[in-house]
Amino acid sequence: MTEATTPLIEVTDVGKSYGSVIALRDVSTVVRAGEVTCVLGDNGAGKSTLIKILAGVHQHDRGEFRVNGEPVRFASPRDALDRGIATVYQDLAVVPLMSVWRNFFLGSEPTIRVGPLRFLDRRKGKAVTKEALAGMGIDLRDVEQPVGTLSGGERQCVAIARAVHFGAKVLILDEPTAALGVKQAGIVLRHVAQARDRGLGVVLITHNPHHAYPVGDRFLLLKRGAPLGSYEKSEIDLAELTRQMAGGAELETLEHELRTA
Predict the structure, then answer these.
(1) Separation CA 131–CA 128 (nearest Å)
(2) Crossing angle, helix 152-165 and helix 182-197, to 10 degrees?
(3) Using the 8-state DSSP alphabet, how is residue 146 labeled?
(4) Which fold has domain 9-260?
(5) Which residues contact 169 (CB under 8 A, 6 or more apart)?
(6) How many C-beta atoms surround the C-beta of residue 106 within 10 A?
(7) What ranges in the chain are assigned the alpha helix state H?
(8) In the beta sheet, which residues pair with residue 66?
C-alpha cells in the first residue's frame, strides 16, 4: 500500500471486553486524510468504547489497530496525541472562568524569558489564538472573554481549532452537536467540514444521521457493540441511513407481526 493511499487510521475486527461483558466486537473501519468517518449508534452501541481505543484511553483485546499502516497499541492518551490523534469529548476540557486564549493553550502557553525568569507572553498568546480561530472561520471580538460566556457551538469550535493548531492529523469528535440547537449544530458541522478540507481525517461520533450525512464520507453503524453496517456515501442515502438508525428492519417485522396477529 503506498503512502498516499495508506489510511491515517485503520481498525480491523477490533474488539474489547470488560471481564465477561463484550463491549465491542468485530468492528472495522478506516479514517483517511481529508475525509470524515461517521460512527453512529444509540446509547450503549459501543461508540464510546471505540473512541476510547482510538484515543489511547483503553487498549483493544482483539483485532488490529493501525496508524499510518503500523500496528499500534496505545498505553495512554499521550501516546495517541504523539501520533497526531486528538479527541474532543462531549464535556469539553475547558475552564469556564478562564479566558478563551488561555483555554486555547491550556498548559502550553507561550512564555518570554527575562533574565533567569519566564513570564506568560500574553500578547503572543492572544494573537496566535485569534489567528488560529480566524483560520477556522471563527471571528471572536475578544479572546480575553471567559470561555464560559461562549455558546456551546462556539466552545466546540474553539476546541476543534485548538486541536488543529497543535498539529492533529486525526480529529475525533464525541457527539459535538448532541446538546446544541439547529443553528449551533450547523456552525459546528461547518467547522468539521473545514477541518476535513484542511486535510485532517475526522471521526464524527453521533446518534443523529441528519448531522452525519451532510459532512460524512463513510458511515459505520453500531448496535450493542457490533457493526450493523458500514457504507461509503455513494452506497447509502440519508433516508436509508435514518431507517437503519431507527431500527427500520425491526420496526417492519413488528408492523408485520401486528398486522397478522
Answers:
(1) 5
(2) 10
(3) B
(4) Rossmann fold (3.40.50)
(5) 8, 33, 83, 84, 85, 200, 201
(6) 15
(7) 47-54, 77-82, 100-105, 122-135, 152-165, 182-197, 209-215, 238-245, 248-260
(8) 10, 71
Residue found under cell 488560529 = 132
**Which amino acid, 115?**
G
Q: What is the pLDDT of residue 1?
A: 44
Query: From residue 210, how far is each of 37, 127, 132, 187, 207 by CA, in Å?
Result: 14, 36, 29, 14, 9
Q: Name the residue type at position 222.
A: L
| C-alpha cell recorded at residue 47 | 461508540
Which residue, among 108, 51, 91, has the nearest Cα to 74 in the 3D structure?
A: 51
Nearest to 72 by CA among 3, 18, 162, 7: 7
Q: What pLDDT does 121 receive?
A: 86
What is the residue whose three cell numbers read 524569558?
A: 113
C-alpha span between 206 and 216 (Å, rounded): 11
Please answer whether residues 32 and 8 qualify as being in contact, where contact means their C-beta atoms are separated by less than 8 angstroms.
yes
Q: Quote the pLDDT of residue 61.
A: 93
Tell me if 174 sits within 8 A of 90, measured CB to CB: yes
Please report, in tens digits, the pLDDT of each residue of the chain (261 residues total).
Answer: 444 588 999 999 999 998 888 999 999 999 999 999 999 988 888 899 999 999 999 999 999 999 999 999 999 999 999 999 999 887 766 788 989 999 888 878 888 888 888 888 889 999 999 998 888 778 888 899 998 888 888 888 888 888 888 889 999 999 988 878 888 888 889 989 989 998 999 999 998 999 999 999 999 999 998 999 899 999 999 999 998 887 655 555 655 566 665
